[in-house]
User: Which sequence fits this backbone?
């Protein structure tokens, strides 16, 4: 049995002392690769500490790659030579000012996990390599060298913008002229352009809970940021007016992380706010505002018909529609676009027309032809079918698990994530409960994303997890659900 001296008077927590002792023995070779660690309960009894203390230490070691959990078998020491040299913690790669990466470019250690529900791991094997390579060869064969190598205009390739406009018309029921579209290298660079276009003297609102990186992006552009609470219907218009928000970044089709879809009544309230119809006193505000509609995974609504975007309901030119090809073609495929109201499109050409498009002409021409040929639509349809199977397998497995009576799934079918609430925790601090469950699940090979990581203000009433399932292998759904159930039962016992 392993023995470590734990000082209860130390400023360092017991779990941290135990973690450091175990880590030192792994790095020194005292605990050799392949060695099985004692069970959590037996080590806890031996050291005279709680199971949660051992659980937290094992969880941190597993997160950093020092040990690996094999379901229903135990914890085994990993070979750590190259990992120790890198000095990179798995958790620090995922965290982003209190939250996990929504569109991470992939985790190099993903193969070590049974399942990763944080959204930081890109799904494998879904990129249409054959169709894309065929399209690329045709572009190189058919287009002139000058066309392929020349820089695109400030708004991007006219051909790609026309293809995007056609896609939006057919898929989102949204009329957009190619001259309203601006193409850029992903959403983040486009948000910077929007700040320049709309102005730095405005207050930009971000949803809470929401995507923490958004607040960082806007603050890095030297603008004031206000957090806007989100309820079951979406961002709360009353808070927008009292907080003096001028521009709201929102996700009405599928909010991240709650997964809610904003109903038509609330959408009309938001549009009225953007038009300046309503002020804090209920009277005309006399000012115009803007909504930036982030439609990040609209292609993957699993249940019912697609919900029309806000931009399709906007008749006053107050909605900027934003989307990327990240969810459909992969995180490494950095092409995004915005659709500007006509007034802003003219202002963009007048004030920012000196910029060169940040996406190469070859990529744009290939994507344009990929969309024109129907290959893109076929690819998205295949993805949607696959992700629906994965979602259903996971939902069914959780419903059949040993903790089914403790789990409440919300907003299933609205996109590539849903919310999993844990009931029966009593008055326990929700964030602490989430951390305990996440640590236990990580020690067993399943990575979870606590909802509290996405809260910028306030605290959760009920422990909950954001279940981004795109990277889950369908055949692992049952095993992942079993691990989650064990972790939940352990935390609530």
Assistant:
């Amino acid at each position: 049995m392993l023995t470590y001296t734990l000082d209860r008077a130390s400023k360092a927590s017991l779990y941290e002392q135990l973690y450091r002792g175990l880590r030192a023995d792994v790095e020194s070779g005292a605990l050799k690769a392949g060695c099985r660690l004692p069970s959590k309960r037996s080590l806890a009894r031996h050291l005279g500490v709680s199971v949660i203390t051992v659980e937290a230490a094992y969880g941190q070691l597993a997160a950093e790659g020092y040990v690996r959990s094999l379901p229903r078998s135990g914890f085994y020491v990993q070979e750590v030579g190259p990992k120790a040299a890198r000095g990179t913690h798995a958790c620090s790669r995922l965290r982003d000012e209190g939250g996990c990466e929504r569109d991470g470019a992939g985790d190099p250690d993903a193969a070590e996990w049974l399942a990763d529900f944080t959204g930081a791991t890109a799904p494998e094997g879904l990129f249409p390599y054959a169709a894309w390579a065929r399209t690329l060869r045709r572009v190189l064969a058919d287009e002139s060298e000058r066309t392929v190598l020349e820089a695109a205009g400030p708004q991007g390739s006219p051909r790609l913008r026309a293809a995007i406009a056609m896609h939006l018309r057919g898929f989102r029921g949204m009329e957009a002229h190619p001259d309203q579209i601006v193409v850029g290298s992903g959403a983040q660079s486009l948000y910077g352009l929007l700040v320049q276009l709309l102005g730095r003297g405005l207050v930009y609102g971000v949803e809470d809970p929401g995507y923490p990186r958004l607040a960082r992006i806007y603050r890095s552009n030297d603008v004031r940021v206000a957090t806007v609470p989100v309820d079951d219907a979406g961002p709360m218009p009353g808070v927008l007016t009292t907080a003096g928000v001028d521009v709201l970044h929102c996700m009405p089709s599928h909010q991240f992380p709650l997964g809610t879809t904003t109903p038509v009544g609330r959408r009309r309230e938001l549009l009225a706010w953007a038009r300046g119809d309503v002020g804090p006193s209920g009277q005309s505000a006399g000012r115009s505002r803007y909504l930036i509609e982030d439609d990040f995974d609209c292609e993957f609504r699993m249940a019912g018909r697609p919900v029309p975007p806000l931009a399709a309901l906007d008749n006053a030119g107050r909605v900027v529609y934003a989307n990327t090809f990240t969810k459909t073609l992969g995180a490494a495929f950095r092409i995004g676009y915005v659709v500007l109201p006509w007034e802003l499109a003219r202002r963009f050409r007048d004030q920012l027309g000196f910029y060169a498009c940040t996406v190469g002409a070859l990529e744009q021409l290939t994507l344009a032809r990929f969309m024109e040929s129907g290959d893109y639509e076929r690819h998205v349809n295949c993805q949607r079918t696959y992700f629906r199977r994965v979602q259903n397998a996971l939902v069914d497995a959780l419903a059949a698990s040993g903790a089914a009576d403790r789990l409440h799934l919300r907003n299933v079918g609205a996109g590539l994530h849903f919310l999993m609430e844990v009931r029966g925790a009593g008055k326990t601090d929700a964030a602490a409960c989430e951390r305990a469950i996440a640590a236990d699940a990580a020690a067993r090979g399943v990575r979870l994303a606590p909802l509290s990581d996405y809260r910028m203000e306030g605290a959760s009433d009920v422990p909950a997890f954001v279940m981004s399932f795109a990277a889950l292998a369908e055949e692992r759904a049952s095993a992942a659900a079993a691990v989650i159930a064990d972790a939940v039962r352990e935390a609530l016992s």
